[in-house]
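Please, structure for the following, as C-alpha cells.
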Amino acid sequence: MNKLHKKVKVGGAGVWGAIPMPPHAHVSDGDIDVMVKWMLTGK
C-alpha cells in the first residue's frame, strides 16, 4: 500500500495506463490512504 500511496502523491505515466496521472501533492496523507484503499476494493 505504501508504494501505491507514493504513486498517487507523486503522479507519473505508464502506471495507470496511457494517460499520465498528475501529482496529488496537495492532498493530505490521510486522504490519499482513503483513495488507495478505495482503489484496492475494485469498485
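The longest helix spans residues 29-41. Helices lie at 2-10, 29-41.
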